[in-house]
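[09:14] KT: can someone run the structure on this one? pasting the chain below
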Amino acid sequence: MKAIILCDQRQKDLFPVNELTPDSMLVFCGNSAAYLAAKEAEAAAKNRSLKICALSDFLPKQLKEHLDSINMRQKGIEVIEKKAALGRYIGELCDEDGILVIEAGCMSGLELDKMIDLYNEMSKKTAVCCAVCAVKSESDTEGYVIRSSDMIAESFANEKYSDCGGEYGLFAGAAFLSYDMAQRYCDSELTSIGDIISAEINSGGTAAVYYSTGVSRRLLTPVGYRNAALKMLSLGIVHSGASEISEGIWCRDNISISGITLCPPVYIGEGVRLEKGSVIENCVIEDNAVVQARSELRGCVIGESARIGAGVRAAGAAVCAGADIRAAAQLNDGSVIGERACVANGSLVSDGVLIAAEKVCAAGDIISEDILTGGDGSAAMLDDDCACGFSNGVASPSECASFAAAI
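[09:31] RB: done, structure tokens below
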């Protein structure tokens, strides 16, 4: 029996979180999405002979290096570069015992071995084509929603979770396919396991549904990335090298927290530097990040090597790897700062604003609209309203002065 970890997703809706980093290498409390998926597969393989493959068409070399760095390839995980539709690889790798397919996403504790047991049990009673794993949730969110009756799926669709009635759950990104089903879709152009299951159910096929009590957060929005990391933190699903120095406070290093207020839950990665006077509540701070003096972070995710300047105020924000938030800046709820982007001194980023990777905001700006696109090739010009022909629409006074000086 084989298991495929799908590492080829690069969802556009996650931009700018995944602008420079593949979805499978996004990090949650020190663990990458690929690592979490591999651990799920390992757990399912405890009582079975299970060969694990990772399938990727986006930066496969980097994926191999990443799996090497976390010692996963030593456990026999093969990285396959994807050059065709998903169905072809499922068909080629599936044997007569079937195949387990897992999306590299934010998942943990999904009890996939029990899902396979359900498949084996129900296949004795009916011609079950696949078992799908779903998670019951009370949150009002979007994703693949599964309705079922007596553990048999009746519908599978991308819709509002709160609009469903009866027995339902959110697809957790894992399925066990029979050999016959895998062969049926080997020539299909469908790109995800969710699409394949939906097509099977819509065509009259049978799918068993296993409802897990585990954790699953499908990454559908940039804010979803932050929510996923904070959800895992709340459940204590953190890097195995972290120690719980006090209730709800995990650290990778033996760092000094004197003069720093930590309100659990908090995860602090390896090589992090925290300066005195800072207040950190319900936050994930990844490896090598810096939080300077008198900063206040609440409900935030701070990426690897990101820098938070002195006196920064941030609530409900995600700061991606390598981003630089300079002194006295303010990040409001739902704001996301892309990798290596810079929010200058005293700037304010309004609720829900997205700033793309490597973008630079001028000092003192109030940023109320997304900054996602670059120049369009038009002539550079400034009018009396400070409209700038090569930017996203509005230039600050300091940008105008810099442009005029350059001219």
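[09:33] KT: thanks! DSSP finds eight helices and 32 strands in the chain.
[09:34] RB: yep, looked fine to me
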